[in-house]
Amino acid sequence: MHLQFPSVPSTENFSNNMPHTMPSALHKHAAPPKPGRIFPFLHLPAELRIAIYEAALIAPCEVNASFHVRYSPIQGAALLRTCKQIYHEARAILYEKNTFRIDDFRPHLANQCGGGSQHATEWLTRIGAQNANLIRKVATEIRDLASIPCLLSFFTFLKEVCAVPAVEELSVWIDRANWGFSLENESEAELVTQLNAFASLKRLVIGGVIPSWWPEHLPGKIQNGSVKLEFAPAGSLMWVERLADKEENS
Fold first, then answer.
1. Residues 6+ apart with CB under 8 A from 29
2. What angle separates helix 148-162 from helix 184-196, to the nearest 10 degrees?
3. Residue limits of the DUF7730 domain (predicted)?
4. SS3 assignment, position 171
């Protein structure tokens, strides 16, 4: 799914400071509307508004956040442009509840513009630090890792995502068929190093065409004992379901 990420509604003296929980957003940080100009939607109970936000803004699949994508706007994203109070109330649902995917670590993109790593930087900059700090779930899909530029782009991407303090779930989907044999050991060691840098990580999924020894070999190298590590090799149920979701919602 391609999502057009809304910008902050343009108003004077507008600050989008907001804590990371919806109840506080609803009851403390929503700017009071001017008398006589209350948007009818805001008369609804807070619980009902939250239910509407969740129905409109939570995608059924991974949301493609790559900067180069020509976005196809969805109806839910436009909701955040309605007014600043709705923006304050709903943005946490958009960024906390969805899984954002950044990929395209292909050779021509890595050589021309940094590939997925630059897409990550551009996107995080565009949505702003306060929205970026709400992100909980990130996925990446890596293809054509037969070249050093692609590997460098991917590992730079991991460093960018690691800087987002609230990321709790990371999914790494790998197409190992094109890995250069001489890069295999170095790539595995660097991957482990990058994954160990995620301080707040609670769930890590590694899937795709992965080495057969990883499920037994890698867990002992992940230093954070609180991380739930899951493997989804090609052909597994999780892998098949993800492909089906991508095809259905692409």
1. 17, 18, 19, 88
2. 10
3. 74-105
4. strand
Q: Which residues of 160-189 are buried (b: 16+ CB within 10 A; e: fewer)?
A: bbbebeebbbbbbbbeeeebeeebeeebbe
Helix (H, G, I), strand (E, B) or coil at 99: strand
Per-residue pLDDT tens digits for 27-60:
444 555 555 577 788 899 999 999 999 999 998 8
DSSP classification of residue 2: B
Domain count of the fold of the chain: 1
CA atoms within 13 A on the CB side of 178: 14
Per the document, the length of the chain is: 250
Q: What is the mean pLDDT of residues 168-176?
A: 87
For the chain, the straight-line distance linking the first and the last C-alpha, in angstroms and rounded, comes to 5
Estimate to the nearest angstrom the gap between the alpha carbon of 68 and the chain centroid.
Answer: 15
CA 48 to each of CA 42, 59, 95: distance values in angstroms, whole numbers, following the listed order: 10, 19, 19
> Tokens standing for 249?
């919602």
pLDDT, position 168 = 96
Q: Which amino acid appears at position 219 of this protein?
A: P
Residue 124 located in a structural domain: yes
**Which structural domain, as residue segments, surrounds residue 196?**
99-249
pLDDT at residue 105, as a whole number: 61
Give the pLDDT of residue 131: 92
Q: Which of 8, 122, 129, 133 is nearest to 69 (CA)?
A: 122
The answer to whether residue 15 sits within a structural domain is no
201 in any annotated domain: yes
How many Cβ atoms sit within 10 Å of the Cβ of residue 62?
A: 24
